[in-house]
Design goal:
This protein has 190 residues and is of the alpha+beta class. It folds into two domains: 90 residues, no CATH class; 78 residues, no CATH class. The strands form three sheets. Strands 1-7-3-4 form a four-stranded antiparallel beta sheet, with no helix packed on it. The protein has a three-stranded antiparallel beta sheet with strand order 2-6-5, with no helix packed on it. A two-stranded antiparallel sheet has the order 8-9. β5 and β6 form a beta hairpin. α1 packs across α3 and α2 packs across α3. The longest helix has 19 residues. The relative contact order is 0.21. This is Phage gp6-like head-tail connector protein. InterPro entries: Phage_gp6-like_head-tail, Phage_HK97_gp6-like.
Length: 190
Amino acid sequence: MAAIDLTTLAAVKAWCKVATSNDDALLSSLITSASQYIETYCDREFVSQSFTEVRNGKGTRAMSVAHYPITAVESVMIGSLIIPPAPVVGSPNWPGAGYVFNDTSIKLHGYMFWAGIANVQLEYTAGYTTIPADLAQCCNELVGLRYRQRDHIGLSGAVGVDGQHIVYDDAALSPAQAVLLAQYKKQVPV
């Protein structure tokens, strides 16, 4: 399983009703390919990983990040000043100065991302530790489609044994998959 894979070989085999291991290498390759396609289509990465961003400060108290959802912040540095985490609500030091974060941004209390060129460094972890079920299923469907299409690559149709015309759908995504992936497309301006 590649680091970016949005589903598992077992899930794809169950979806495609594949009982043997004859095509495991092919299916694994298709999983990685479909996962990469989804990440490119959505313009973001989904699997949890660490990121470091060097950004321009704009004189604001909040800064959106390029990758989300944020699950942890390792450090926030402005110039040579290291910003501590803000005290937890209800702790003896609350309210106090420091940073807090939500899914898409880091906010400062008592500090500011002062204006400057490449003066802000953010180190954080973002992405899903467990891929959302609908996203994993979309990947299963893409893999299944590519797996079944391998026997008629480049064909738009065929004539069956009994004279019936068979039309192959060569769309990259079904309308339902496009709607699903639209909700995962990168929306945060950086």
